[in-house]
Write a structure and sequence with these properties.
ion transport; transmembrane; membrane; alpha/beta; single chain
Length: 691
């Protein structure tokens, strides 16, 4: 078969399109009657509501409605007219149409007149506008009645666009003289669910140039939902949603459940709570390879749930998939990290003073010992000089030594001076009070110094022995990165949050961030000292208390391995917040319930109910939290390691001195030519003479 030229195909296509358009508009009334209806509708809306801007989306068939006398007979309001081609695919609009729709939404237009001859174009326009939020679904919509709008594929639209009226034209009845064309004004049956077949609800009838009943065309459909059942999907996340299991049933409580109960009373609906089938693994849910979503978000995206409870963060990611209420609180999101004990009991003897204090004490000891030796040396020389002056020159030195003043022998040698000075520092009294007023005065003041120093040391030592051992904790992101612990949390979006962080520390955490589906598994890894888990501080508090409570119960039943329990770390919540995230309740995308729910939620927050419910939810958890042990002045063997270490050091030094003396006796003294083991006195007399 020969191919037709391109221009011939184009001509055929245009003819087919024109033929279809003629078929579509064959029975459509484009006269002034429709213009009169729209004028009356617009005037009624402007009179009853605050209209900021009106957007008319029409085609060439109905363009003449919005010309001429239309604007003379309506209230003056800003008006945006968007004309689309009859062949334009509004599921992928042209650039001009996109820009016009975006500008209308930016300007805050809250009334839409979608008057198109082709009902398929309307459905594709609504689908596109709902998906990409180019239409304000909570605005007021006026459309032509078309059976193609009510196909089952588009029923989900009428759960989101509820402030809408459909204008249906009825011809004049043949054979009746007084019969004139009339219009049926109907709307969606919200809040009643659409079951299989869409049946619109009549609002009013326009005939003879006016509305027959004078009802309000756009009445509030969300203030009283008439006891309708709304599906509420929830995810357990303390304190927002708390689940307690009784036999085979679950009792759901928490802050968001209390908020839901309040909203249900004020808006008159019955919540039906349920969990997604994959809630145990998928939790909040994320995008799958086929483009669908799992978990709680999957229920919202697929339109199965009307409301979502699960501690949803007010983030662009969640806002793109659902509608979020105004935040009812803000939570600190941080890491749960392992805690380490500093086993420094072996150095308790030196802990009461800092390094610079110990250096000062040592310097004072050396300086004071040297001063004592200097003063004693001065007195000995003075005594020797006086005795030499009084006695003959041939008087022996031994005789002089026997006449030394009392007590000067304590400091007569530098080694003895340092030893007795150190003894006074340990509050050991001198065997004799030295003579010489300068040494006595120095001894008195040095005793005062020793008393103050020893009292301070004892007090600090008592506090160290009485208090529990200090703990090593991670409290900043920098400390977490430096610790080189593996980090993790739930969901790929959390990892993406750290990877796209503006600071280098957050990026380094995101490089090795693990996706953990089970918080209990994360707590076990943290207790082993090899992991840090990211979540809200309240949930981390619950996780740490639950871990500790389970260990206590298991220990009471003798089911815990003693070695593993001893080696497990305590769990510590990092004090620095990574981010203070606002928390909201979720609604399905473009939900009509959100505006009124926001008003009630604002009042709930203002009167302090959220704070009260939060305290109630966390009270039991905080009461079970006993992270700080009761401080008691008890001394155990571990705290006294320092005493045994000091004793061991003394034994070691004494043994070394003994070995040194033994070596000196055998290798130096015994090998001296003057050594006589039977006359040692003569040996030492000769040695003293040589010195």
């Amino acid at each position: 078969m020969a191919r037709l030229p391109l221009f011939v195909l184009s001509v055929l296509f245009l003819k087919i399109v024109n033929a279809d358009i003629r078929t579509i508009i064959k029975n459509v009334n484009v006269r002034k009657d429709l213009q009169h209806v729209i004028i009356n509708v617009l005037n009624d809306v402007v009179k009853r509501n605050d209209v900021t801007c009106v957007t008319a989306i029409t085609d060439e068939v109905y363009l003449n409605i919005f010309e001429g006398a239309f604007f003379k007979r309506t209230y003056p309001v800003p008006f945006v007219t968007i004309v689309v081609e009859e062949h334009e695919d509004l599921l992928s609009p042209s650039t001009e149409t996109l820009e016009s729709m975006a500008r209308a939404k930016k300007d805050g237009c809250n009334v839409y007149f979608i008057i198109l001859a082709n009902g398929l174009q309307v459905t594709r326009l609504l689908t596109f506008g709902d998906k990409y939020r180019l239409l304000d679904t909570r605005a007021k919509f006026v459309m032509l009645h078309d059976i193609r709008l009510f196909h089952s594929d588009y029923h989900y639209l009428w759960k989101r666009i509820v402030n809408v009226i459909f204008i249906k034209h009825h011809k004049k009845v043949v054979g009746k003289l007084r019969s004139k064309p009339w219009f049926d004004i109907s709307t969606v049956p919200y809040p009643n669910p659409i079951k299989g077949i869409f049946v619109p609800r009549r609002v009013d009838v326009w005939r003879n140039g006016r509305f027959q009943y004078g009802k309000e065309l756009f009445f509030d459909k969300t203030s009283n939902l008439n006891g309708e059942v709304l599906n509420v999907v929830y995810l357990e996340h303390v304190p927002s949603v708390m689940v307690m299991k009784f036999n085979e049933s679950n009792k759901v409580s928490g802050v968001e459940v209390e908020i839901l109960n309040t909203l249900s009373q004020k808006m008159n609906f019955q919540p039906k709570l349920y969990q997604s089938l994959d809630s145990d693994l998928q939790k909040l849910g994320e995008e799958q390879e086929n483009g669908s979503y799992s978990g709680l978000l999957g229920e919202m995206v697929n339109g199965k749930a009307d409301i979502a409870l699960g501690n949803l963060q007010y983030t662009p990611y969640h806002l793109n998939l659902t509608d979020l209420s105004i935040p009812y609180t803000a939570q600190c999101w941080t890491f749960l990290t392992p805690e380490a004990l500093t086993d420094n009991s072996w150095k308790t003897l030196i802990l009461p003073f800092k390094l610079n204090m110990w250096i000062a004490v040592l310097l004072v000891l050396l300086v004071t010992g040297a001063i004592f030796y200097g003063l004693a040396y001065y007195y000995l020389n003075l005594v020797d000089f006086r005795e030499i002056s009084k006695n003959s020159a041939n008087k022996s030195k031994k005789k002089l030594c026997d006449t030394k003043p009392v007590g000067l022998y304590l400091f007569g040698e530098i080694t003895n001076s340092i030893l007795y000075t150190y003894g006074m520092l340990l509050v050991v009294s001198l065997p004799r009070l030295p003579s010489g007023w300068s040494i006595r005065l120095l001894t008195g003041w040095y005793w005062l110094y020793c008393i103050l120093l020893v009292v301070s040391y004892r007090a600090s030592m008592t506090a160290i022995l009485a208090n529990p051992a200090p703990r090593v904790t991670i409290d900043t992101l920098k400390e977490l990165v430096d610790s080189r612990l593996a980090c993790g949390g739930w969901g790929s979006e959390t990892k993406k949050f750290f990877q796209e962080s503006l600071d280098e520390t957050g990026q380094r955490i995101g490089e090795n961030f693990d996706n953990v589906n089970s918080p209990e598994e994360a707590a076990r890894r943290i207790a082993q000292g090899a992991f840090a888990y990211y979540d809200s501080s309240d949930f981390l508090k619950y996780l740490s208390v639950r871990r500790k409570a389970n260990m206590t119960i298991s220990a009471g039943n003798f089911t815990v391995n003693d070695t593993e329990e001893h080696n497990e770390r305590s769990l510590h919540i990092m004090s620095d917040c990574v981010v203070n995230a606002p928390i909201s309740i979720g609604f399905h995308k473009n939900s009509p319930l959100k505006p009124l729910a926001d008003e009630y939620l604002k009042r709930i927050v203002e009167v302090g109910l959220v704070g009260k419910w939060l305290n109630d939810a966390m009270y039991k958890i905080r009461s079970l939290d006993k992270t700080e042990e009761e401080i008691k002045a008890l001394i155990n063997l571990k705290k006294m390691y320092c005493a045994f270490i000091a004793l061991a050091i003394g034994y070691s030094l004494s043994l070394l001195c003994l070995l040194a003396e033994y070596a000196h006796w055998n290798f130096i003294v015994k090998r001296d030519p003057n050594f006589d083991k039977y006359n040692l006195a003569k040996y030492y007399d000769n040695k003293n003479k040589r010195q």
